């Protein structure tokens, strides 16, 4: 079928809106008319150079889609045409990790989500000039009027709810909230510091408040983001550039953090997070560092560091829980969202990179 998509043809090029030919859904797949798509920094990572033989571009990106199912391929039983859905990551469903209820650690996660293609190497989109496009970014490529997703990446939602608000739940919000509530298991009375107050970090702040954490510290370089973090539930907000940051965190918590969560991927920030932990404290990482991370001696006191992928969440159960909390006023993640028209996608990217907008959502 013919549809409209935002195509990224080179790492240093803008997105271009093009007519593309999209194949019909195959076995286990669904065709979704996209209503909205959040823009995440993981989408922008699609601009990075890749090794020969693993090229992604040209591609249709987007992995926080929400829309309406138009048709389904063979074998699909969980959704049907007309269902309103939020799209999340894909997983195989039969490896050891999936069967253990940990689909974000699926043994095929990379192949299914980060290559822009199906596991067999195929893709389902062709540009008007005949160029084959990667169109399986997180099994959806939702920067388009239509996308083909997998049944396992789809979460059905109430058709009365606004899809342009729900779209970011599929990755960024899920990652931040899940890391706090599931991955780190934050409980009432605990102390938590969140490093970085973007969409993932602020979702973590909201989740820490939801969990009943006694001290919630937001750490960020930007004063406006620290102010918003305080409005969303942080009890303290600190400047990440302060040379006394670790001492301040230890003073606020009376000896060290129970939990820390880093969204920056900056090695020096991660090291500060470890140093601020109390005995048996835990640091969760949501972003990988591009250089070797050297961890300080405090790990010897029972402290742990772990990488949390997609917040350790199972989207089909966790996203409905977040929606319920939002409806009841306990999880106002919508305060981070700024809508953009689909043809303003390059403006949305620029505002996301500059920090002007925390969570751009393309309304399609």
* Largest β sheet strand count, sense and barrel closure: 7 strands, mixed
Helix content: 25-40%
pLDDT averaged residue by residue:
95
Oligomer kind: single chain
Rg (CA only): 20 Å
Q: Tell me the count of domains.
A: 2
CATH topology of the largest domain, by name, is: Quinone Oxidoreductase, Chain A, domain 1
Total DSSP E strands: 18
Distance between the ends: 17 Å
CATH superfamily of the largest domain, please? Medium-chain alcohol dehydrogenases, catalytic domain
Low-confidence stretches: none
Q: Report the total helices.
A: 11
N-to-C SSE series?
A: EEEHEEEHHEEEEHHEHEHEHEHEEHEHE
Overall morphology: globular
Structural class: alpha/beta
- What is the level-2 CATH architecture name of the largest domain? Alpha-Beta Complex
Concise structural overview:
GO terms for molecular function: oxidoreductase activity; zinc ion binding. With 364 residues, this protein is of the alpha/beta class.
Describe the model.
By secondary structure, the protein is of the alpha/beta class. It folds into two domains: 2-170 and 332-363, Quinone Oxidoreductase, Chain A, domain 1; 173-310, NAD(P)-binding Rossmann-like Domain (Rossmann fold), CATH 3.40.50.720. It has helices at residues 41-44, 96-99, 109-113, 163-166, 172-183, 199-211, 223-231, 245-253, 267-275, 315-327, 345-354, and strands at 2-8, 16-22, 29-38, 59-60, 65-72, 84-87, 125-127, 132-133, 146-150, 154-157, 191-195, 215-220, 236-239, 257-262, 277-285, 304-307, 337-341, 359-363. Strands 3, 5, 6, 9, 10, 17 and 18 form a seven-stranded mixed β-sheet that branches. Helix 9 (267-275) links the parallel strand 14 (257-262) and strand 15 (277-285). The protein is globular and about 60 Å long. The mean pLDDT is 95.
């Amino acid at each position: 079928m013919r549809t409209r998509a935002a195509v990224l043809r080179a790492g240093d090029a803008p997105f271009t809106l093009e007519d593309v030919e999209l194949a019909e859904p195959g076995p286990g797949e669904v065709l979704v008319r996209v209503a909205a798509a959040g823009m995440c920094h993981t989408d922008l990572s699609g601009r990075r150079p890749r090794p020969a033989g693993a090229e992604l571009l040209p591609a249709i990106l987007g992995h926080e889609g929400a829309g309406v199912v138009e048709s389904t391929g063979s074998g699909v039983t969980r959704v049907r045409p007309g269902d309103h859905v939020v799209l999340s990551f894909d997983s195989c469903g039969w490896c050891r990790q999936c069967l253990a209820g940990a689909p974000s650690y699926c043994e095929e996660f990379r192949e299914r989500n980060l290559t822009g293609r199906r596991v067999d190497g195929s893709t389902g989109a062709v540009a008007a000039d005949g160029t084959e496009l990667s169109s399986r970014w997180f099994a959806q490529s939702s920067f388009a009027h239509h996308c083909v997703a997998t049944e396992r990446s789809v979460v059905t939602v109430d058709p009365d709810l606004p899809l342009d608000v729900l779209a970011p739940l599929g990755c960024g919000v899920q990652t931040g909230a899940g890391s706090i509530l599931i991955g780190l298991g934050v409980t009432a009375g605990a102390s938590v510091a969140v490093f970085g107050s973007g969409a993932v970090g602020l979702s973590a702040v909201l989740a820490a408040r939801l969990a009943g954490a006694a001290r919630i510290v937001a750490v960020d370089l930007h004063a406006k983001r620290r102010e918003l973090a305080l409005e969303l539930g942080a009890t303290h907000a600190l400047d990440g550039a302060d040379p006394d940051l670790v001492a301040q965190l230890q003073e606020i918590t009376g000896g060290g953090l129970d939990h820390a969560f880093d969204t920056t991927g900056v090695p020096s920030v991660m090291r500060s997070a470890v140093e601020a932990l109390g005995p048996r404290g835990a640091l969760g990482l949501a972003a990988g560092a591009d250089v070797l991370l050297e961890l300080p001696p405090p790990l010897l006191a029972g402290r742990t560091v772990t990488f949390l992928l997609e917040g350790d969440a199972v989207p089909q159960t966790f996203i409905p829980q977040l929606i319920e909390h939002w409806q009841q006023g306990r999880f106002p993640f919508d305060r981070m969202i700024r809508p953009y028209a689909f043809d303003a996608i390059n403006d949305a990217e620029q505002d996301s990179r500059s920090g002007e907008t925390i969570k751009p959502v393309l309304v399609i």
